[in-house]
Amino acid sequence: MNPQQDLKHFSISKRILSLTLLLSFALSCKSIPMNEEQDYGLRLVALDISPEEYGLLNGQLLSKRPAQVSVRVAGEFKVNCNASYAGRSSIDAFRKSYDIDFCDEKYNKRSHYRLSSQAIDKTMLRSIIGYEVFKEMKLEVPKTEFASAFINQKYQGLYLFMETVDKEFFKAHKVPIYEIYKARYGNAGFRQDFSSKLSEAFSYDGKGEDNFTYLEEIYKLLWLETSDEVFAEKLKAVFDVDSFLSYTAVALSINHWDGFDNNYFLAFDQDQRKLTTVPWDLDRIWEKPDIYEPENLLERNQLLVRMLKVPEFKTAFLKKLRKISEKFDVEKLIAKAQELEAQSAAALREDPILSRYKPAAFEELHAHMRIWDVKMKAHLAKYPAESK
Questions:
Q1: How far is Cα 169 from Cα 276, in angstroms, rounded to an integer?
Q2: Cβ(103)–Cβ(111) under 8 Å?
Q3: Residue 1 has pLDDT above 80, yes or no
Q4: Among 145, 177, 272, 283, who pairs with 267 as Cys (CB 3.0-4.6 Å)?
Q5: Rounded to the nearest 10 degrees, how much is the dihedral formed by the CA atoms of 103, 126, 132, 388?
Q6: Residue 197 burial (CB < 10 Å; 0-12/13-18/19+)?
Q7: Per DSSP, what are the bridge partners of residue 77?
């Protein structure tokens, strides 16, 4: 064989070797499945976005401009729909959350869902467990489940697929509502300095333009009515006291420190003619248990502070705390966390980011649950008679 033929054969062999190595690397890279979307035993949610739309989505990150996408959920195909980046504090996180709009083609009777990365929670368990506790206390909660997420056939990792809290949410839950107020910016703790600037504490969704009439009435009662007895009677006429006390009792029990002046909804129930409370955004529950004390959290909402000065409300609140403590023993909660961990294990194992944090993130969650449980038991021990 002449030198030119040797060189030709060597060049061909080199190219074959390179292709073989490249293919082997691609097949072994767990974050890039080759044209195959796996559900890992969970609900599969896949977004297909053109390069142009993806560029627009990323180019206008803070404005959360929607991009045109194709959405497939559990094998169902939806076209000409929209998705936008979701969240505020997590908008610049590497793992993005998405608000998905199914346009005229509803999925399970809903046209809006959130595909949530739970930016803070490396276990992806907190929201599912937290909503279960809120639901046990008779509050309406967004349906939430694990999902394996793909974008353009590339596995993004373990996500949560959940209802958004909006007019559709209340319709689906058979609650006739008129106005919706969303707590935001950590300003929704009913502080007096926000009495004249409610739009900075709550966003508004209703039939009027920035109609804060119902909230204004609560603020006036809180800061202008000097008699606790009169305050209590007037409050019960316009405010679902039971749902608010249930909400704050659960929030305290699970160290939802970010939920006393933020991350909740108030909606005007037309049947009751009262504002009712709905929880939201639980990815930080049981966080920083060494920093916070139950008493610190109670002080983050001035409406709750005033309500707890009313013996009737305080007794009801303490009984709710006792019920939660007995119903959700910390070891039972940890067992629930372990059950959910097993359910999501396959998807988590292949997650290009979250897989790095296992098992430390789960061990930390269990430890935080136990630390907060000790603090809550000590808090309840201060009121032995009232909480029974």
A1: 14
A2: yes
A3: no
A4: 177
A5: -140
A6: exposed
A7: 72
Task: For strands 144-151 and 43-48, give the pairing.
Answer: parallel
Per the CB < 8 A criterion, the answer to whether 336 and 365 are in contact is no
pLDDT (tens digit, 9 = 90+) per residue, 159-198?
999 999 999 999 999 999 989 999 999 999 999 999 999 9
Tell me the C-alpha to C-alpha distance, in Å, between residue 331 and each of 204, 325, 341, 366.
40, 11, 15, 9
Q: How many alpha carbons fall within 13 Å on the CB side of residue 321? A: 29
Q: Which long-range contacts (CB under 8 A, 24 or more apart) does 364-371 make?
A: 365/123, 365/125, 365/126, 365/286, 365/337, 366/334, 366/337, 368/255, 368/286, 368/287, 368/289, 369/286, 369/330, 369/333, 369/334, 369/337, 370/330, 370/334, 371/289, 371/290
Instruction: Give the pLDDT confidence score for residue 64 in this predicted structure.
Output: 80
Mapped onto helix, strand or coil, the DSSP state of residue 261 is: coil
In 308-385, the DSSP E strands lie at: none
| CA gap 379, 174 in Å, rounded | 36
Both tokens assigned to 241 = 């006291």
Are the C-beta atoms of residues 218 and 241 closer than 8 Å to each other? Answer: no
pLDDT tens-place string over residues 56-90? 888 877 778 899 999 999 877 777 789 999 987 66
Query: In Å, what is the CA distance from 225 to each residue of 71, 284, 300, 374?
Result: 52, 35, 20, 37
